[in-house]
Amino acid sequence: MNAGLLFYRIILRPLRQERLRTTLTVLAVSLGIASVLAIELAGDAAAGSFRSSMETLLGDSSLEVTAIGGVPPEVVTQIATLPYALKIHPRIEDYASIMGTRKTVPLIGVDLLAESSGMTGDSANQSGGDNLNAQDSIWIGNTLGYKVGDKLKLLINDTSAEFTVRGVLGGNSGDMILMDLAPATDALRRNGRVDRVLIEMQGGLTADQAETILRKALPENIAVQREGTQTDENRRMLEAFRWNLRILSYVALTVGAFLIYNTISVSVVRRRVEIGILRALGVTRTGILAAFLGEAAAFGVLGAMAGVILGRLMASGAVTLVAATVESLYVSSKPGTITLTWENVALAFAIGVVVSLIAAFSPAWEASKVAPVEAMARGRREHKTRIHTLRSLAFAALFAAAGWFASQQEAVGGKPVFGYGAAILLIAASALAIPALVAGLSTATSGILKALFGAEALLASRNLAASLRRTSVLVGALSTALSMLVAVGIMVGSFRETVIVWMDDRLQADLYLRPAVPPGADRHPTMGADVVGVLEKLPEVEAVDQFRGYEISYQGAPATLGAGVARIAGRYGNRPLLSGASPQTVFPRLEGQDAVIVSEPFANKHNVRAGDVLMLPLAKNRVAFKVLDVYYDYSNERGFIIMDRSTLLKYLPDPAPSNVAVYLKKGVPLEAGKQSVDAALAGREIFVAPNVNLRREAIRIFDRTFAITYALEAVAIFVAIMGVGGALVALVIDRRREYGLLRFLGAGAGQLRRIILFEAGLLGILANIAGMLLGFFLSLLLIYVINKQSFGWTIQFHWPVRMLLSGLSLVYAATLVAALYPARIATQLVPMEVIHED
Amino acid sequence: MTVALLVFPPGSIENGAMSIVRLEHVSKDYITEGAPVPALRDVNLAFGHGEFIALIGRSGCGKSTLLNLAGAMDFPTSGTVSLDGVVTSNLNDSGLTQLRREKIGFIFQSFQLLPTLSVAENVELPLMLSGASGVGEKAKEKLSWVEMDSFASRMPYQLSGGQMQRVAIARALVHEPGLLLADEPTGNLDNATGELILALLRRIVKEKKTTLILATHSTEAAAAADTVVRLSDGRVQEITHPAKVLTP
User: Fold this and answer.
1) Which of A721, A776, A631, A696 is nearest to A255 (CA)?
2) Is B153 near chain A, with CB under 8 Å?
3) Regarding predicted confidence, which is higher, B14 or A415?
4) ipTM
5) CA dist., res. A795 & res. A792, Å (int)
6) Chain B: residue nearest A743 by CA?
7) Which of A117-126, A319-328, A515-524, B225-234 has the weakest average pLDDT?
8) Beta-strand runs (E) in A111-263
9) I want to staple B135 with a disulfide (CB 3.0 to 4.6 A). Which of A219, B127, B163, B224 is the partner?
10) Which backbone phi and psi does A511 adopt, to 5 degrees?
């Protein structure tokens, strides 16, 4: 009880008196926690959306049967006629766009007659039982906002048609359109194939038994798996992406930790005399340690309280960005609802308190070591810190060496665990080297600064060196935030440049065609099989390549199986290969052969090299495909297996292409070629994009993908700058006697302001130097270790000079702006009052 | 010794041309908890060039307030303070700053050397702040005058109290001010060192014809002055010769 009262009087009450410092520290912690929480919530919401509406709508099934290219009707019949108590639910899953709204929603085809009794939720709004399998009948999810009888024009693949709403689904149906199986197969050109058959066990049959029965009964190219396997695969695929985002979200928290450290250090320095008195009055060392850790914990708790609210708000913005990236690079998804659970709240509080306690431990421990009679001058204390810079440098070298060693290690379970470790070690090495950098640079430059800018610059430089410990923490916080800006800036800039160069090589055709319904990383809507024939007949056209993609699962991970016309791709295309071999020599070897090339992300993910053999379930028996080479690819992270079209058609005889590339004859103007193609395809919903548009769209998606990383960096930098502002306020308050003295010695208010601004400017320069150096090394880690091990992409290093210059200048300017308020405080001090305070 | 100190009756301003600092009907109130607390009441004083004046009185009698007003650090609540004929109330902040740079030097009880600057840099500071030229030479000359030139490159924490105060005196003199204001300059020193500092201050007045106003509790320090002004409750209680101060 007494301890609590003492804690309140000595630790908590002063916090109320220093509202600005307390508020800034709490805000810094809360923003760090909010970043972590927002990314967690947004990631959950984006990943949660894999569970399709139908999964919840139709209840649970334990098994599902799938096949590349769809389950043939004869297999469905075979399962249905098996002499076991199995109930089957064949299903088609695709997407349709509602014309006029640009909204793309899942289009599900089910056997409505069989399923209607098993549907969950309020299906009372259904009507038109006579129209169940009418070609224009649809049932819609309850969030789409249509009512029974409404007419909807839907874009399915490259065809648009009008449909009538026969019912509105209840329950959690959400945004979806439901059709009967037969019209759905027609609309989606499935030739009777379904995407999956859900199996429901009856009569006491277990899932294991049913799985054995089905595996035995069905050919080898038909997969029997537990329902939700694909969702799990998608989740696993997203793990690396989520992990990288998570790590990035912790940067703001790390910067916040620096500021907690600084706040508690300031608190300890200011209360040194108080600590001495308390010790003399009988407070134990543990009591002092607990008091300062308690102060840090208070910041953590308050930060978590604000962080939970801020995090929930930030998650709303983050989920859009995360979902857009997931959609572009991984899998079709629709952001789910953001759900703030008690676990999330507990996590926020745990992070807040634990990080605050860790950050505060060193200064709190130091406080506990103060002897009762000790009231040392700051000068001596700082002198001690200066002496330790050599030892810190030695540790920095050790940490850097350990970081280098860690960077050389392989991924663990597909995660760049050692890469993250190397990044942490490098940040620690930088933090340890910063006191030497500050001391060295301020000593080396104070003479020059004095000559160039006079007394104000000299005083600012000496002040920074004199408060070495505090300056180092501030430079550490700001440089950590800046290093992430630099590192991610270089990584993204390099990636962007690599993608641009890759597109120059890869996109050699003049026009690219796809169905107007928006595609996704895992969606390959098709065009009519006659499209290529129509185009080949055009006088402007030199050659036409076509691509067909199928989603497959390879070794438990989603991938894309595709085929192009090897003859044309080899002749006109320029797909860069890892081996350095020319496509003109490799592609002809694909023609008509059971041979493939694979994309780099696929090769890295599955440890596949040229010469290896892939077993793919394409025929009744698995087929062996020889890997001829690996090609660079940056279009998505799922990975591609590419074969010649004739080979694919041999196993999956559906001729409809997903994409078409048109090479115009020499001398044919692009616009004329496009007009001719448009005219030839009039009446079909096909999107024709000139090469340049495709590149522009790719770069737009690329930039959108990394928008969240910039948003997280912005938060970290904001926290750091806020910390600099708050710390400068503390510095001004602590040095008020010196500022008062300067007024006695003839310094004007403007000169005091300039001293503070010089200090902020020097802090900014030191942070920029440290941030650039650390950022450069972190960028190497990101490009060559973390990114490579997480996503499998080879990125060519590139300096994004303009981005770095503008980013660093902006941060520098913001640092100076943050110093204006402390400068104002300095100019408003009353010299006569502060000069006699000691 | 000529005592050019003038306590003039209200309305009759005499000897104005000779004064470096002149206080006419000066009162100063501080606001404490919303109520004015008088620190000086209707003080009329004028000090001429080259005089050594000691301000004595109990704590809170107004010594420091008088020094601050004379040093252009503060404005009176009523009345006027003139420095070399310039009325401080007519100046803005930069005007006051300029006045301090040109005419006033301060010496403090706790020396107030900046710990981050070397001895020479501390002495150079007022000149650098005013943008003067020949900063290094002038600082060196003043350090030599106080016999601290051999300590020029040391840091303050490497000096004794007496040495620090001599450096502070060199700093106060570096811009050749006409008025030197010293607030308990021997208060943190032992008797022997205090004597040396007082001798140095005496020498400044004699050789440089600088007016020195010294606020002190010390009768020994007051004894070094030409004139002693005793303050009580913000009023000038008496003006005496030092010999009288020493008389019990």
Assistant:
1) A721
2) no
3) A415
4) 0.86
5) 9
6) B97
7) A117-126
8) 137-140, 151-156, 159-168, 177-180, 196-201, 222-226
9) B127
10) -130, 145
